From TrEMBL:
Membership in a protein family: Belongs to the membrane-bound acyltransferase family. Sterol o-acyltransferase subfamily.
Compositionally biased residues, Basic and acidic residues: 44-53
Membrane topology, record value: Multi-pass membrane protein
Superkingdom to which the source organism belongs: Eukaryota
Entry's localization field: Endoplasmic reticulum membrane
Residue segments, region Disordered: 1-54
Gene: DGAT1
Protein name: O-acyltransferase
A Pfam family per the record: MBOAT
Catalytic activities: 1,3-di-(9Z-octadecenoyl)-glycerol + (9Z)-octadecenoyl-CoA = 1,2,3-tri-(9Z-octadecenoyl)-glycerol + CoA; 1-O-(9Z-octadecenyl)-glycerol + (9Z)-octadecenoyl-CoA = 1-O-(9Z-octadecyl)-3-(9Z-octadecenoyl)-glycerol + CoA; 1-(9Z-octadecenoyl)-glycerol + (9Z)-octadecenoyl-CoA = 1,2-di-(9Z-octadecenoyl)-glycerol + CoA; all-trans-retinol + an acyl-CoA = an all-trans-retinyl ester + CoA
Alphabetic keyword roster: Acyltransferase, Endoplasmic reticulum, Membrane, Transferase, Transmembrane, Transmembrane helix
Transmembrane segments: 126-148, 160-183, 189-208, 428-446, 458-476
Cellular component terms per the entry's GO annotation: endoplasmic reticulum membrane
Length: 490
């Protein structure tokens, strides 16, 4: 498993600088011989030639088998290849979880039920409210497009455009929230999915409006420059790129709406073609993989998390919360990791390949985060890019301090997290909001007191313990409200 060429693999060392402990009778040259330091210390070692044959001709025996050196775990040793230990951690993790898994199976039997999953999405097979909501979302996209079309030709003033976009964007958030809150036939899972689609649409149309506005400002600036120079601005050499307002087509808008990004651009980097082999390999096989991962997540919830939560279904008791945390943190974390791989690597790459979308940086190495700040900069690149481009940098340009801009971004993010949880559950507890806002002081504490590996461990701990606590609080409260209320009256 290990790297044989690493520091641990080098077995022949020169012992030149070491002072002689044999007395002064041997010639100094003999002290400088090359010896096999790994040969052990229980017998004198004879020199071998290049082929490994013992050099019996010289009749010389090496009486030394030690030299000045540090133990491998000492930081002075310079040794860095700990792959074997990493593999050991993985094996131990699997073994300890296998034990938990077996205990769970013996105690509860098999709880995984793929058919039951359907009921999470639908209450009535003839009523698909979440899907209807998603289809209706097209109206808002078309409305934004029509406003942009009119702004491009000057049929609307910028103020009127701003007002119309504002109303459209506000409706995108309020309309599905009202439907999800009031419509009895919609399930919480269906509601979350519909609200996610609307939230993505909101962020995309916000970006669409911003970029088209920047294009108009640039066009106005270019016209003014050309007028000053006394010559007509020309399209220039045949450009293969699209320029404003030629981008205002339904094809362009819908490409953006389906592309795996939240930030609009007139000319997205495109891969030259759809690689059919890649799609066959990654797409079809990947489709199976994605289905498997989806089922795995659902299975983990049904088999592992639901019993852990059911076990602590008592009115608020510290011991109950402790049990939820201890029993639910590990499966919750595993589900979150699988979700990350499933969404950010598998699904987004498949969509990007189909759409020939060239920028595949959907995540960076967040697992190496030594600070909370680094984690938020690297785990969800589409959202981070949007936050930087349409919120953080514009605030900085308007003169806000970095602290105010960062707090503003986290406030917005906290709002959307709460929006996506509270409305589907019809329960306002503000755990998600608080969890997101807590990232600001947490980032300060981790940055102030932890460095390097300790910082990395602190980030992992906050993910393994902090995030599940918020999730499990909602699940716990939802369960208590919806399962215990009817029985309490009887
Ligand atoms: C708030 C947030 C945007 C801050 O990002 P950050 O990378 O820590 O911010 P920084 O201060 O390092 O600056 C970032 C950028 O702003 C630029 N910048 C800094 N000061 C600037 C100024 N005065 N004017 C213009 N740009 C400026 C930097 O050059 C840098 O640009 P680059 O990205 O092109 O290199 C980030 O933490 C974030 O995305 N948080 C929310 C994440 C979230 O909620 N995700 C939800 C996932 S479910």
């Amino acid at each position: 498993m290990g790297d044989r060429g690493g520091a641990g693999g080098s077995r022949r060392r020169r012992t030149g600088s070491r002072p002689s402990i044999q007395g002064g009778s041997r010639p100094a040259a003999a002290e400088e011989e090359v010896r096999d330091v790994g040969a052990g210390g229980d017998a004198p070692v004879r020199d071998t030639d290049k082929d490994g044959d013992v050099d019996v001709g010289s009749g010389h025996w090496d009486l030394r088998c030690h030299r000045l050196q540090d133990s491998l775990f000492s930081s002075d040793s310079g040794f860095s290849n700990y792959r074997g230990i990493l593999n050991w951690c993985v094996v131990m993790l699997i073994l300890s979880n296998a034990r938990l898994f077996l205990e769970n199976l013996i105690k509860y039997g098999i709880l995984v039920d793929p058919i039951q999953v359907v009921s999470l999405f639908l209450k009535d097979p003839y009523s698909w409210p979440a899907l209807c909501l998603v289809i209706v979302a097209n109206i808002f996209a078309v409305a934004a497009f029509q406003v942009e079309k009119r702004l491009a030709v000057g049929a609307l003033t910028e103020q009127a455009g701003l007002l119309l976009h504002g109303v459209n964007l506000a409706t995108i958030l309020c309309f599905p929230a009202a439907v999800a809150f009031l419509l009895e036939s919609i399930t919480p899972v269906g509601s979350v999915l519909a609200l996610m689609v609307y939230t993505i649409l909101f962020l995309k149309l916000f970006s669409y409006r911003d970029v088209n506005l920047w294009c108009r400002e640039r066009r106005a600036g270019a016209k003014a420059k050309a007028a000053l120079a006394g010559k007509k601005a020309n399209g220039g050499a045949a450009q293969r790129t699209v320029s404003y307002p030629d981008n205002l087509t339904y094809r362009d808008l819908y490409y953006f709406l389906f592309a795996p990004t939240l930030c609009y651009e007139l000319n997205f980097p495109r891969s030259p073609r759809i690689r059919k082999r890649f799609l066959l390999r990654r797409g079809l096989a990947g489709q199976g993989g994605r289905l498997f991962l989806t089922q795995l997540q659902v299975g983990l919830i049904q088999q592992w998390m639901v019993p852990a939560i059911q076990n602590s279904m008592k009115p608020f008791k510290p011991s109950g919360w402790g049990r939820v945390g201890a029993g639910g943190a590990v499966p919750n974390h595993l589900i979150w990791l699988i979700f990350f791989y499933w969404l950010f690597h598998s699904c987004l790459n498949a969509v990007a390949e189909l759409m020939q979308f060239g920028d595949r940086e959907f995540y960076r190495d967040w697992w190496n985060s030594e600070s909370i700040t680094y984690f938020w900069q690297n785990w969800n690149i589409p959202v981070h890019k949007w936050c930087l481009r349409h919120f953080y940098k514009p605030m900085l340009r308007r003169g806000s301090s970095k602290w105010a801009a960062r707090t503003g971004v986290f406030l917005a993010s906290a709002f959307f997290h709460e929006y996506l949880v509270s409305i589907p559950l019809r329960m306002f507890r503000l755990w998600a909001f608080t969890g997101m806002m807590a990232q600001i002081p947490l980032a300060w504490i981790v940055g102030r007191f932890f460095r390097g590996n300790y910082g990395n461990a602190a980030v992992w701990l906050s993910l393994i313990i902090g995030q599940p606590v918020a999730v499990l609080m909602y699940v716990h409260d939802y369960y208590v409200l919806n399962r215990e209320a009817p029985t309490a009256g009887t």
